[in-house]
Amino acid sequence: MKPTKIRYQILFLIFVNVVINYMDRSNLAVAASDIGKEFKFSSVQMGLIFSAFSWTYLLFQIPGGILVNRFSPRILYAVSLITWSFATIVQGFAKGFITLFGLRMATGAFEAPAFPINNRVVSNWFPDNERASAIAVYTSGQFLGLAFLMPVLSKIQFYVGWKGLFVVTGLIGVLWGVVWYVFYRDPLKHSKVNEAELKLIESGGGLMDGKSIADADSKKKFKWADLKEVLSHRKLWGIYIGQFAVNSTLWFFLTWFPKYLVDYRGLDFIKSGYWASIPYLAAFAGVLCSGFLSDYLIKKGVSAAKARKRPIIIGLLISVFILGANFVDTPGLIIFFMALSFFGVGFASITWIFVSSLAPKHLINITGGVFNFIGQLSGIVVPIVIGFLASGGNFAPALIFIAVLGFMGACSYIFLVGNVERIKTKN
């Protein structure tokens, strides 16, 4: 009996979840120009609103992870989708800075469990030898989905206004939350998966019921000494700073980029949607090229760790080319430098591999937590700093800021991470 391929249908559901997740993160970026004009927001106020999502998204990562361990993905993801989408709908009725800021915070809080759920679902449904590619597929949704959605979101706003944009995107999420609840099941509860596929998943290391040794490790009591340990090593600070740098450029594109094109470079609003899609396609291409380069280096005898370190350094250095947009005026050249920079971000997006490669074996989970925490801090810091830097009407300092962070990230991998080897502790 041939194994069924229900796991690929499940992967498609997750891919759409990620697309909707990032659609509701970036719809504010599309609406920002009109919102700023209607409420007469300063660039500093706009930067604060852009950052609001990340405050609660970051704060609720640990509680979200706890919920993922306690509730089934079918129920928790449906609740998460519907609640963050409802918060998105209500954003269309915001009356000013306070309400919009609060609703963006609510969106971040309700989205917090999403990626931990994605990881659990893929761990349940895919054997080890397919899991990396499955993660790459759903992760690509953040780039590929937005590449095609940017023009669509711009069109929606053109016809129904910024308020209608939030209502439409929110309704899509609510409906998809119902679809997820109707169609998703864990492997052992799915009526269409056959025994051959279940055996394939289980024999290949799929967790099936979501339990593993890693889960048991995660329930160990937290010790402050462990946190001190993962904050005291130069190599780990290298990957922490690198992750902050990678996410910094990403958050520029998720927040300020469309407003930059319209308000600071004078592009037509509808055309800006099409222009804005190009860097996302470039980032998607960067993700694919990074994977191919890593495989090529490994085939040439380069160690797996170094084969992944080089694309990260190269990608971060390429991201610095965002600076080129300060020296050109034509839309094509502006987008060229933006796309080149975002290609670099995609090329450097395999940073998580170094959490498991460098961290002490018994501290991988807490290292991953610190790594993710510092990386997500960029979602708070970058939009606010850009708001201050652009407050005088000149966006050039903001792009210099992003370029400097990219260069710092590359230097952190070169000089702080150094040789790729696991850190050994006395315990």
TrEMBL record:
<feature type="transmembrane region" description="Helical">
    <location>
        <begin position="277"/>
        <end position="298"/>
    </location>
</feature>
<feature type="transmembrane region" description="Helical">
    <location>
        <begin position="395"/>
        <end position="416"/>
    </location>
</feature>
<keyword id="KW-0472">Membrane</keyword>
<feature type="domain" description="Major facilitator superfamily (MFS) profile">
    <location>
        <begin position="10"/>
        <end position="421"/>
    </location>
</feature>
<keyword id="KW-1133">Transmembrane helix</keyword>
<dbReference type="InterPro" id="IPR011701">
    <property type="entry name" value="MFS"/>
</dbReference>
<dbReference type="Pfam" id="PF07690">
    <property type="entry name" value="MFS_1"/>
</dbReference>
<feature type="transmembrane region" description="Helical">
    <location>
        <begin position="44"/>
        <end position="63"/>
    </location>
</feature>
<keyword id="KW-0812">Transmembrane</keyword>
<feature type="transmembrane region" description="Helical">
    <location>
        <begin position="75"/>
        <end position="94"/>
    </location>
</feature>
<dbReference type="InterPro" id="IPR050382">
    <property type="entry name" value="MFS_Na/Anion_cotransporter"/>
</dbReference>
<dbReference type="InterPro" id="IPR036259">
    <property type="entry name" value="MFS_trans_sf"/>
</dbReference>
<feature type="transmembrane region" description="Helical">
    <location>
        <begin position="370"/>
        <end position="389"/>
    </location>
</feature>
<dbReference type="InterPro" id="IPR020846">
    <property type="entry name" value="MFS_dom"/>
</dbReference>
<protein>
    <submittedName>
        <fullName>MFS transporter</fullName>
    </submittedName>
</protein>
<feature type="transmembrane region" description="Helical">
    <location>
        <begin position="6"/>
        <end position="23"/>
    </location>
</feature>
<feature type="transmembrane region" description="Helical">
    <location>
        <begin position="310"/>
        <end position="328"/>
    </location>
</feature>
<feature type="transmembrane region" description="Helical">
    <location>
        <begin position="165"/>
        <end position="184"/>
    </location>
</feature>
<feature type="transmembrane region" description="Helical">
    <location>
        <begin position="334"/>
        <end position="358"/>
    </location>
</feature>
<feature type="transmembrane region" description="Helical">
    <location>
        <begin position="237"/>
        <end position="257"/>
    </location>
</feature>
